[in-house]
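Lecture 7 notes: from sequence to structure.

We start with a single chain of 249 residues. Read the sequence below before looking at the structure.
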Amino acid sequence: MYLRIVFIFIVICFFNQKILPETIQKGFLNIKNQSMIDLKGEWEFYWQKFYTLQEIHQIQFKTYCYVPHNWIPCNQEHSGTGFATYYLKIQIPDRWLNQEIGLYIPTIGTSYKIYINGELKEEVGKVSNIKSKQIPLYGNRIILWKAEKTEQEILIHVSNFYHKSGGLWYNISFGLKKEIEHLFFKNLFFDLALFGSVFIMALFHFGIFIQKFLLRNTNQYRRKYKFRTKHFIFFYFLLFDFYKNFICK
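Now the structure, written as tokens:
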């Protein structure tokens, strides 16, 4: 009974977010009453180009790509590797003016630079149009700045030569500072809780493995225990899962 209550509490905490769905249409989003929003929809997208904000403003023929998704359907080559520019214009409500606003950015495949209103805010990994110069890097980020005007412009340069598909894989959230920080630490807590659970399970089965290893040659072990390969398989599975989700991340 208590476990059910705890489970329900965790689900409510992690999924009761102040995020209302909006659809970005042709690279533009108008925010009305929300305090935080997922930036999903049609971003402007330019394949095999690293455009500046000034160059974006001069483009007559615009192309688009749905986010969150990889960029394979958005380029004529249907290639997962390459580089591209994503651009989005956002109209924020007047009540956001002179307040701290920001972005919560999950992992992007596989390195990127992000510009806010023409100013470089962050580079994750090393962005390049050449494979030998690109350095991939994974991880979540938050970017904060002061809203000095109602029109906000987000420009992202993305390059990927080390994964089967690049692009903006996951939802990017945009909103007031307190909401963005709340989302960041909530996801961080979830990752730490998951890490702790997997780590405890790994220690438990490692202990069983060590115990059986030390006793395997004794008569007591032969009488009471029967060697089972599945104990080793599960132990190695936990180690692999730990490495994949936390070390590689």
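Helices lie at 2-15, 53-58, 177-215, 219-224, 229-247. Keep this in mind for problem set 3.
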